[in-house]
């Protein structure tokens, strides 16, 4: 981060560029096309000069958001996308080719798991490993491995990858290291600090925070030397090599595949991001209090949360995230407490998918977001049939604890 703190930097980011009429927000630019008075200027922009051509490749509004995200992640550049999935699809499909090997965490977001299946059908070798154990990660590498992918805190099992260990391994072997930072957000964790090459964020989650916009981003940390990466096309080997990877992701992922973030969503995400630090602090403290309460509750068999000392990666989480453990937790209910009955008795908590919203959300994971993948893969990912995934919101803490307690008490009665 620059000299200023996290929130100061985000709040004043737009003003540091030239905002029209002294407006404090970057306007929502709705123009699809950008015209130039001089045809040579138009040609120059097409040939790489900074500027805008067609909205599918970005607008001044998405560019302003990208600048903010680069600051949050301490990166050298960011490309935004219509959703987090569009961002992940762009990274994998533009940087990997048939015959390359991608090593992925076995605990990934369900839709990412499905996307990796599609990639495998197209000829990329994809294999899965337990990323909490560096010995297993090392053993799973192949001569054709090009990229290693993991999330920070897995959803909903809350397993925590050996992020620093994988970073060292990737640096040693010159592999592209991609981290999905969605569950932690750049307020809790900058993936650059463990040597990530690229950082993905679903902007739909904590960064926008209010459940009213979808978006995704890829940030280059500047740590990877793309001059040695075989899959960069000649046309993108322009300028300093630090920019080549992101240029290819932008040209192929936005221009050719078209998963572009709308200016309207970019604006909402930028406004939401202003309070990321305040909201995350509330998510984290509510989740920790709830995890402690539930762990001692007779209606609960097990709580999955990295902030509990019983969590297998508690020490690692404490060290990497500075004593903050995120807003997501898993609850395995006690025998005899039916997960549907329990959820139906919650009064404040919404039964909904999504996470990172200001409101608390809960769902029965095996029966919803992890239904399609089947029982075998669920077992591999540690998802029990009774597992409830909770995205803890920023409600007043006492109200939240009371809501869970009253629902559990009613189920036990
Ligand atoms: C939600 C999520 C995504 C996908 O993001 P969308 O914006 O919903 O497409 C990817 N990874 C993780 C960890 C997520 O939670």
From TrEMBL:
GO molecular function terms attached to this record: carbon-sulfur lyase activity; O-acetylhomoserine aminocarboxypropyltransferase activity; pyridoxal phosphate binding
Cofactor: pyridoxal 5'-phosphate
Pfam families: Cys_Met_Meta_PP (PF01053)
Domain of life: Bacteria
Keyword set, alphabetical order: Pyridoxal phosphate, Transferase
GO biological process, one term: transsulfuration
E.C. no: 2.5.1.49
Family annotation (InterPro entries): Cys/Met-Metab_PyrdxlP-dep_enz, PyrdxlP-dep_Trfase, PyrdxlP-dep_Trfase_major, PyrdxlP-dep_Trfase_small
Modified residues (N6-(pyridoxal phosphate)lysine): 205
Signal peptide per UniProt: none
Cellular component per GO, a single term: cytoplasm
Family recorded in the similarity comment: Belongs to the trans-sulfuration enzymes family.
NCBIfam families: PRK05939.1
Protein name: O-acetylhomoserine (Thiol)-lyase
Organism: Bordetella petrii (strain ATCC BAA-461 / DSM 12804 / CCUG 43448 / CIP 107267 / Se-1111R)
């Amino acid at each position: 981060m620059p000299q200023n703190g996290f929130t100061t930097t985000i709040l004043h980011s737009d003003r540091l560029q030239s905002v029209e009429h002294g407006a404090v927000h970057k306007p929502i630019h709705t123009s699809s096309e950008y015209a130039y008075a001089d045809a040579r200027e138009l040609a120059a922009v097409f040939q790489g000069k900074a500027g805008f051509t067609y909205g599918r490749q970005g607008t001044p509004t998405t560019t302003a958001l990208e600048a903010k995200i680069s600051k949050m992640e301490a990166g050298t550049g960011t490309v935004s996308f219509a959703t987090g999935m569009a961002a992940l699809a762009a990274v994998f499909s533009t940087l990997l080719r048939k015959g390359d090997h991608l090593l992925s965490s076995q605990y990934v977001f369900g839709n990412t798991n499905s996307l990796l299946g599609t990639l495998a059908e197209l000829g990329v070798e994809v294999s899965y490993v337990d990323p909490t154990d560096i010995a297993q990660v090392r053993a799973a590498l192949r001569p054709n491995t090009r990229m290693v992918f993991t999330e920070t805190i897995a959803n909903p099992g809350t397993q925590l990858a050996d992020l620093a260990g994988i970073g060292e391994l990737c640096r040693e072997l010159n592999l592209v290291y991609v981290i999905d930072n969605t569950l932690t957000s750049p307020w809790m964790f900058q993936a650059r600090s463990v040597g990530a090459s690229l950082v993905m964020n679903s902007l739909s989650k904590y960064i926008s925070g209010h459940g009213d916009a979808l978006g995704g981003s890829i940030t280059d940390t500047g740590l990877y030397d793309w001059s040695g990466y075989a899959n960069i096309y000649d046309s993108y080997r322009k300028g300093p090599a630090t920019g080549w990877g992101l240029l290819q992701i932008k040209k192929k992922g936005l221009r050719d595949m078209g998963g572009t973030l709308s200016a309207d969503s970019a604006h909402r995400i930028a406004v939401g991001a202003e309070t990321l630090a305040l909201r995350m602090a509330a998510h984290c403290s509510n989740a920790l209090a709830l995890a402690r309460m539930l762990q001692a509750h007779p209606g609960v068999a097990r709580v999955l949360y990295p902030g509990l000392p019983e969590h297998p990666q508690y020490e690692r989480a404490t060290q990497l995230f500075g004593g903050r453990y995120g807003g997501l937790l898993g609850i395995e209910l006690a025998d005899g407490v039916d997960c549907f009955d329990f959820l139906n008795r919650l009064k404040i908590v919404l039964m909904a998918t999504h996470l990172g919203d200001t409101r608390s959300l809960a769902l029965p994971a095996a029966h919803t977001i992890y239904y399609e993948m089947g029982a075998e893969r669920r077992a591999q990912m540690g998802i029990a049939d009774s597992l409830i995934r909770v995205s803890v919101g920023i409600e007043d803490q006492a109200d939240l604890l009371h809501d869970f307690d009253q629902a559990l008490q009613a189920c036990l009665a």
